[in-house]
Amino acid sequence: QVQLVESGGGLVQAGGSLTLSCAGSGIRFSINAIGWYRQVPGKQRELVATISSGGTRIYVDSVKGRFTISKDNAKNTVVLQMNSVKPEDTAVYYCNVGGMWPNAYWGQGTQVTVSS
């Protein structure tokens, strides 16, 4: 059984930093691309960052230079380091394996709230 568990969300002031972690079980992060998505009420879930099995990173333009995605294969975890956060980063953040395909795996989500 695959489980993705996010942690690290919370309330942070604009300009501050937050670290999100995703711990996986039942699936090997070393051979999968792992993504972070976010969603605000009334809007579609959007991709924030992904890291491939080989370590290639892709970021949505709005977070480039501010967020960093990294992976620890030994611990089967993925971290999203969020720096210089902005109020528009407020969302529920989800860890993902499989992209937007129907059989993708998702975590339960963690709320990030950035105050201005």
Map the helices and strands.
Blueprint: E1 3-7, E2 10-13, E3 18-25, E4 34-39, E5 46-51, E6 57-59, E7 67-72, E8 77-82, E9 91-97, E10 105-106, E11 110-115
Parallel strand pairs: 2-11
Antiparallel strand pairs: 1-3, 3-8, 4-5, 4-9, 5-6, 7-8, 9-10, 9-11
Walkthrough of the structure:
The protein is mostly beta strands and 116 residues long. The protein is 0% helix and 51% strand. Strands 2, 4, 5, 6, 9, 10 and 11 form a seven-stranded mixed beta sheet that branches. It is globular, with a radius of gyration of 13 Å.
Structural key phrases:
116 residues, mainly beta, 0% helix, globular
Task: Describe the global form.
Answer: globular
Order of helices and strands: EEEEEEEEEEE
Distance between the termini: 40 Å
Low-confidence stretches: none
Radius of gyration: 13 Å
- Count, helices: 0
SS-based class? mainly beta
Helix content: under 10%
Largest sheet: 7 strands, mixed
Strand tally is: 11
Instruction: State which percent range the strand residues make up.
Output: over 45%
What value does the average pLDDT take? 96
Task: Provide a brief overview of the structure.
The protein is mainly beta and 116 residues long. The chain is built from no helices and 11 strands. The chain has strands at residues 3-7, 10-13, 18-25, 34-39, 46-51, 57-59, 67-72, 77-82, 91-97, 105-106, 110-115.
